[in-house]
Amino acid sequence: MKKIGVLLLSGLLAGACSESAESENSFKKPLATKEADSVEETEEKALVPNKGFIFHKGDTLVSVDHFNKNIWWELKYASKDNFMRRILYDTLERAYVQIEVARRLARSQEYLTGRNPEYHLLVYDGLRPLSVQWEMWNGLDSIPFLERIKFVSNPKNGSVHNYGAAVDLTICDSKRNPLDMGAGYDDMRKVAYPSLESEFLESGEITQKQIDNRKLLRRTLKSQGFSNIPTEWWHFNAFPRAIVKRKYRLVTKELAE
User: Is residue 215 helix, strand or coil?
Assistant: First the structure.
C-alpha cells in the first residue's frame, strides 16, 4: 500500500457532510464497558509512526479497523462504485478516522458482535479530504442548491468527514453481503431518509425488515455516542460540528510521499 501523507490546515472551516442538516440526536457519552476500558488502555502514544497511522503536525488518523479487525472497509471513492462513477481518491486506499473515533467504532463492533457474531460493520468512507468534497459538490452543480446541501455539504462550510470524524457505513454478513437497507449507499432519493421511514413503510416502498436493519445500525453506532443524520441512513458523526472544529484539524487534500 502506498504511504499516504495528509496536508492539514487548522481552524479554517466548520464542517458537516450533508451534515448541513444537523444530526437527529445530540451527542451522548459512549457507554462504558470492560472492553471499552481495555481499548482506552491502548497507548495514546501510539503516536509512534507505523503503517497504521497518518500524521502531520501532531494530528493522528488511523485505519477504521485499527482497534478491531472485525470492522471491514470498502472505500467507495477509491473505486468507480460511487455516485460520481469515477475514482476520487488518488492515494487513499483505506478508510481512516481520528484515533478516538476508531476506538468508538471498535466498541460499536463489539456491541454488534454481541448481537450477531456473523455481522460486521462495513465502512464505505471515513476521512475525506476537502479537495474531494469540492469535486463532489461541483459534480452535482445541476441540482438546486437547497437540494444539493442535503446530500453533499457545501465545501465552503466543510464536512465532518473532512476532519476524520464521520463515517459512512453499513452492516454486512460474514460473506460481505450488506444487509438490505431499502436504499443503496449514496442514494439521493428520499426513501434513503431515516426521517421519512414511517411514511415509506406506510406506502410500501420500504419494508419493516429493511427498517429493522437500519435500526440495528443506528443502535450499534449510538451505543458509542455516534449520531445519524435525517437524510442518510449510512452517515454517522462522532461529534457535533462545533466540537469537531475545536478538536481536530481540517484535512485539505491527499499527498503521496
Answer: helix
